[in-house]
């Protein structure tokens, strides 16, 4: 947070320092089971490495996948479906892209869910109305932003860094994976443009969401 441009603004720095953690406390209740919204088994880790795409063998350039499957369900929980939508949205897109396409993706996701349920002779509007879906998006946006920030700090290291560390220093790899990766995150934030841009992207939107910063 301290490296984000909002933290360097004298007017905004004390707001962040004094209010951030109290505003973030709601994240714990958002991660728990709820009776407020319809829940399903959600994956919660929808980045590229956990999605396997299938292509038509004649599609040599692999432009259009014909199907996909999800792998690695170790973070799965019983939560509203919007959690997976939000995690995928923030993990796989940047702010500029979201500003242009988020409403389109939101509509596409909801209509695709309705079509899938209809294929099983289920009235999807009774399972999850569009109004309820939109309410859940607003309710769980903080979870999507925070969880994406956590994952960005792990999945965006330069190619080969984690594999090398896993083989050459497994103790540090375990510590960095399970306990504390602050030193790694700060090092690559300061030295790797892509890592810094992806981290800043979600941190900036999180601070705007919490404090209405402009």
Automatic annotation (TrEMBL):
CHK kinase-like domain: residues covered: 1-119
Source superkingdom: Eukaryota
PANTHER family recorded: CHK KINASE-LIKE DOMAIN-CONTAINING PROTEIN-RELATED (PTHR11012:SF59), PROTEIN KINASE-LIKE DOMAIN-CONTAINING (PTHR11012)
Name this polypeptide is given: CHK kinase-like domain-containing protein
Organism per entry: Anopheles farauti
């Amino acid at each position: 947070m301290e490296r984000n441009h909002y933290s360097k603004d004298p007017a905004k720095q004390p707001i962040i320092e004094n209010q951030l953690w109290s505003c973030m406390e709601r994240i714990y209740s958002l991660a728990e089971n709820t009776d407020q919204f319809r829940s399903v088994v959600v994956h919660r880790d929808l980045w590229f490495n956990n999605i396997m795409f299938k292509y038509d063998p004649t599609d040599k350039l692999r432009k259009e996948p014909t199907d996909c499957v999800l792998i690695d369900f170790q973070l799965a929980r019983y939560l509203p479906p919007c959690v997976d939508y939000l995690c995928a949205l923030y993990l796989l897109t940047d702010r500029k892209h979201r500003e242009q396409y988020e409403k389109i993706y939101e509509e596409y996701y909801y209509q695709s869910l309705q079509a899938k349920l209809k294929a099983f002779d289920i009235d999807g509007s009774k399972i999850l109305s569009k109004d309820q879906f939109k309410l859940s998006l607003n309710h769980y946006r903080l979870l999507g932003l925070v969880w994406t920030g956590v994952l960005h700090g792990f999945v965006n290291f330069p190619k080969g860094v984690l594999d090398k560390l896993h083989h050459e220093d497994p103790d540090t790899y375990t510590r960095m994976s399970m306990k504390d990766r602050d030193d790694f995150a700060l090092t690559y934030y300061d030295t790797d443009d892509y890592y810094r841009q992806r981290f800043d992207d979600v941190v900036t939107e999180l601070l705007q969401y919490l404090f209405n910063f402009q």
